[in-house]
Specification:
Helices cover 35% and strands 20% of the residues.
């Protein structure tokens, strides 16, 4: 994604864009991780299936819910 952004230079993403990664979705050991594109690109999430979510501006209730979910599944 960052490679495509660098190529197209549309200003949509940066290494500091905050994203959510859902790792091993549908398995018995899923995980939800929150961080920058740069930080999460360095992480090994194990075997697939993975999903990357690039949110818009979140309401504070959404931020709390994602934080709680992340703590429960990591």
């Amino acid at each position: 994604m960052l490679g495509m952004e660098k190529e197209r230079a549309e200003g949509v993403l940066s290494p500091e864009t905050e994203v959510y990664a859902i790792a091993r979705a549908g398995s018995l050991a899923p995980g939800v991780f929150r961080g920058t594109l740069h930080a999460l690109s360095k992480r090994d999430f194990g075997p697939p299936l993975h999903t990357l979510v690039v949110p818009g501006k979140l309401h504070f209730v959404e931020e709390e819910a994602v934080g709680t979910l992340s703590e429960m599944l990591t």
